[in-house]
Amino acid sequence: MRAILLSGGFAAIFSLLGTRYAIGWFSRHGFGQPIRDDGPTTHHVKRGTPTMGGVVILLSAVAAYLVATLATGGWPSVSAWLLMLLLLGCGLIGFLDDFIKVYTQNNAGLSSRGKMAGQTLVALAFGILATSFFADQHGVRPASQYLSTTHDWGIKLPLVVVLLVIWFIVTATSNAANLTDGADGLLAGASALIFGAYTVVNVWQNNQRCGSSRPTVVESQCYQVRDPLDLAVFAAAITFACVGFLWWNAKPARIIMGDVGSLALGGALAGLAIMSRT
Questions:
Q1: CA 156, CA 66: separation in Å to the nearest integer?
Q2: What is the pTM of this model?
Q3: How many separate domains does the chain show?
Q4: Percentage, residues of the chain above pLDDT 70
Q5: Please, is 254 exposed, middle or buried when counting C-beta atoms within 10 Å of its C-beta (0-12, 13-18, 19+)?
Q6: Which among 20, 45, 241, 259 could disulfide-bond with 97, CB atoms 3.0 to 4.6 Å apart, if both were Cys?
Q7: Under a CB-based contact definition with an 8 Å cutoff, are residues 116 and 110 in contact?
Q8: What is the domain extent for residue 129?
Q9: Beta bridge partners of 152
C-alpha cells in the first residue's frame, strides 16, 4: 500500500511540474496543434496550442512507478513490464503521428495503415509474451487463454484465437481513447477515473487472490491473476499523472495531450483489462 501512495504522489508532482515546463518548451519550439479546416469551428481557437503533452503523462507515470517500487524494496514485475510495453509502444506510435502533424503543419499525420501496423505489432508482441511465457510458481501467466469477465470461464481457446482477441482489444481501445480526446480535459479526466478504478480492482484482486493465506479468501471465488498489487501501483501512477496533467488541460486547455497520450492510455487500459481478467 505504501508503494501505491508513493507512486500516486510522485506521479502527480512529476506531471504537474513537468506539464508546466512542457507548455513553455513546446511553445518556444513551435510544437503547436494543427486543426482540420473541415472540423467544428469551435475547435479553430485551439490552433497553435502546444501539443504532445501526453509525453509528460507517460514519463511521469513510468518514473513514479519505478521510483515507488524501488524505494519500497520491490522490483518491477513481469506484468508491469508488459503494461509498460503497451503504454510506451502505443505512445511511440502516437508520438510519430503527432510529430508528423507538427512538422508538416498538416493534421493528416501518420497514415491509417501505418498506425494500424504499429498497433498490431505492439498488440501481438504483448499477446505472445503475456500468454506464452512468464508463468509464476502457480502456473499463472500474465494473460489467460480463456474468455473472462471477472473470472475465466468456458473452454481454453487456441492461441491464434486469443491473439486475435487481444489484438482487437488493444487496437480498438487505443483508437477509442484517441477519438475520446476531442474536448479540453475529457480524456485526462475520464482516464483518471478509469485507472483509479483499476487501482481499486487490482488491490481487491490481490486481497482475494487464489492461494492466499487470508482466511476470508473463498477458493471458489478467488482471483487467478498474476502480480495484481504491482499492477495497482502502476495504475495509481497513471491515475495521478492524468490528474497532474488535467490541471493544465482543463478548459481552456493550455496544452493538448495529442495522440502520444491518447493511444498510450488506451493501450494501457487494454493491458489492465486483459491482465486482470476483466
A1: 34
A2: 0.91
A3: 1
A4: 90
A5: middle
A6: 259
A7: no
A8: 2-275
A9: 148
